[in-house]
Amino acid sequence: MSENLVVRQTKIQRSAFYSLACGRVIAGRLLGAVIRTGENKGMTSRGLVEGLYPNGRIRELGSGANQVFRIHETDTDTSVIKVYPVASREKRERHALEALAGLDCIPTVLNNGIQGDLAWLKMNDAGNWNLRTLPKNLAIVEEAGKTLKKVHSTKAEITNLVVGIDSDYVKSHYRSTIERLGRYRRRFGMAQEVLTKALDIDPPLATDPVPLHTRPIPSKFVVNEDNQVTLVDWEWATLGAPEWDLTLAVWQFAVVHGEDAAAAFRQGYGAELPESRYRSWVAYHSAMMMLDAAEVRDGKLGDLSYLVDVLTEAVMGT
């Protein structure tokens, strides 16, 4: 992997743009009905959890579209509850986790329910750290690569889709993404030749679909005291080309922890990609992030020049 593809860690902070981009790519292909029951309309996520565990110690772990809490039911017994604003999100994640239940690197579903407008999912506590915040440990990063390989090697019916994000979809969506990005080229300060070159290179090569996480970035790999690695957040799981997950993970491990971490992840996964194939996928990922930012954020793009640099390097080789 070219060192120029590695941008500064401070500019790749858990990209909300990429989360939205994956959702936009996959949402139309996922099935799930929104089912709401109960009388607790307007309840907050924390209020729901406090109602479920009035005697437990509750700590919020993260917020966003969904909220995640750690529950200390006793001094030694902990679990995690994820609260969703709509039931369809909980249903998608639960379906994926139940389909992958035979793997030891996936959260275990313990309970679930719906109260008012909110749905919740109780899972085992996978650990206190993740591979974004944990100091670099190449052995654990290698385990993360093995974890992703385990997922891709299963035959789990992770979705009702028959095909998912296959090679035809990737080819078509890659081209349309670059073409649509051209509408915002000036706002990003991007040279036209970059987009022209992006359309000239071979599109990302996608092999046969497998169970796909879609966002296996470092923060999604949780680590416990025994150094066991668990891949969390399966709301947008689907069938898709394994290269989608692999190239995104390798790129972001390089960004966060350096090229040796990217190499360790590849070692754990047990696969290599030629440089040209890697570059086209990185171009695809970065273009999706920029396009989603431009189309969703109402003109407030912030400093996304680092993504322009990534796309430029990926397609121009400079």
Give a written overview of the molecule.
- The structure is a single chain.
- This protein is α+β, with helices and mostly antiparallel strands and 318 residues long.
- It has two domains: 3-29 and 129-316, Aminoglycoside phosphotransferase (APH), C-terminal lobe (Aminoglycoside 3'-phosphotransferase, Chain: A, domain 2); 45-124, 2-Layer Sandwich (Phosphorylase Kinase, domain 1), CATH 3.30.200.
- Helix content is 43%, strand content 15%.
- It has helices spanning 16-26, 45-52, 87-99, 138-153, 167-181, 185-188, 192-200, 242-257, 259-269, 275-296, 305-316; strands at residues 57-62, 67-72, 78-84, 109-115, 118-124, 129-130, 210-212, 221-223, 229-231, 238-240.
- The chain has a five-stranded antiparallel beta sheet, sandwiched between helices. A three-stranded antiparallel beta sheet has the order 6-8-9, covered by helices on one side.
- The two termini are 13 Å apart.
- The model is unreliable at 4-40 (pLDDT under 50).
